[in-house]
Amino acid sequence: MKNKSIHISIVIIGYNTRASLKSVLESINNLFIENHIIEVIYIDDGSTDDSLEMFNDYKLQFHKKEFKFNKNRGRSNARSKGVELASGEWILFLNSNIVVKSNIILKYAESIQNNTAYVFSGCVDYTSRDLVFEKYLNHSKRGMKQYKNGALINYQNLLFSNCIIHKSIFDKITFNLDFKYYGGEELEFAYKLHKENPKMIRATSDAVGVRINHPDYKEHLYKLIEFGETNFNNLDKKLKKDIVRCNLLLIENIMFRCFFNALYRVCRQCYGVQFIGHQIIRLGMLSAILKGYYKTR
């Protein structure tokens, strides 16, 4: 007997990602879906390339929907629009640089049918020209990679680049549209979700996507500085502490500013040294966030 059919809306968000979007759509076209019903929704976040035209021209085997913002409005706005357009009972969120494994729908469906939860998060394998950073990102004890199938997960590890959420969740919890830059919007939503449903976020660790061409370490640090200057300030105090680990670091202090600016430079310089440890990588990311944050104090 076949399992019950599940209606899933795949929501892809993207901004100027034509080069990777084609690979994403090819992987979706190769999905094994059995008796499940699939639609694919692409939200173009104000791209200036022809990403949307490529999506419209691509011959997908599934029903397609699309929407384009007239200017870049950020991931929260893009995902909110995707939810609005979705007709599925479950929404699979992907970014336009995530190539999915062909069994991802079957793995999520298996989790849905065998567990009581409103949210399931898969894993992401990262590729990058920066092989040291790629190794760090793919460490077996980092993020979602530490969880077994069906395990409850810490809300901080929920990956919106590869997760499936029951649509009814969005009747109570919405994305914060004030987040218009890089970072933080996923953490805030996951925290609200955790408070509302503390035991309803589970792992589907064998539902795997591959992040294409992740920025190298130094490029990533620039994005974290941007986060520290912008979206980090929209987080409440508890979530800021989750990121920096110590409320003391959030106090305006010239000594902290000088120390973390110096630490940022040291970590960037040390990064090229052979056998660099993960601790230096993490310190560099923390100092980048605080470097941006102190600019706004």
Average pLDDT figure: 93
- Radius of gyration, in angstroms, nearest whole number: 19 Å
What's the number of domains? 2
Going across the biggest sheet, name each strand in turn.
Answer: 3-2-1-4-7-6-8-5
Biggest sheet record: 8 strands, mixed
Instruction: Tell me the number of helical segments per DSSP (H or I, 4 or more residues long).
Output: 10
Strand content: 15-25%
Order of helices and strands: EHEHEHEEHEHEHEHHHH
Shape from CA axes? globular
> What is the CATH T-level topology of the largest domain?
Spore Coat Polysaccharide Biosynthesis Protein SpsA, Chain A
- List the quaternary state of the chains: single chain
CATH superfamily of the largest domain: Spore Coat Polysaccharide Biosynthesis Protein SpsA, Chain A
Can you tell me the residue ranges where pLDDT is under 50 for at least 5 consecutive residues? none
What structural class results from the helix and strand content? alpha/beta
Termini Cα gap: 62 Å
Give the CATH level 1 class of the largest domain: Alpha Beta
Bin the helical content: 25-40%
The CATH architecture term of the largest domain is Alpha-Beta Complex
Number of strands: 8
